[in-house]
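As a warm-up, study this chain.
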Amino acid sequence: MEQIIATVRGFDGALVFVPEPGDGSPEIAWGDAFFSYAPDGRMSQGVQPYGTIVTKDYPDDTASDLDPPGRWRVNVHVGRPVFLDLTGEDPRRLRHPRDHAAVDSVMPHPVYGALGWICVVNPGDRTTDTVVRLLRDAHDAARRRYERRHEPGSA
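Now compare it with the structure written out below.
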């Protein structure tokens, strides 16, 4: 997990937010990580992160069984074409059953898969390089969106 966080921190313009006690974030988010493109170092209002790491189950997201010690999940927004390449399914028409608690396997996010998000529980030898590539691509896409929003005359 720390290796992935450090890698994303090395992306030009990356903002990695890891909530902790005292920073005003909700307790449930403490220890998780949120990846955004923010060249000014400030989180933009109304802009979702392009990737996250979660370290526990959330009330509406328990399929990955993240509460046992040492379990965590990387989530990346990849969009429809990449999602289709990775999973063999259109995110809007997910039909195949999956074991969302399986480790080191790329699969649709159990809650946000239909929106083009994939996930990997405890990336290992099979998936770490893929996860880093997907995070890099998601970061680059977020940078392009940022640049379009900040072009002269785009207000």
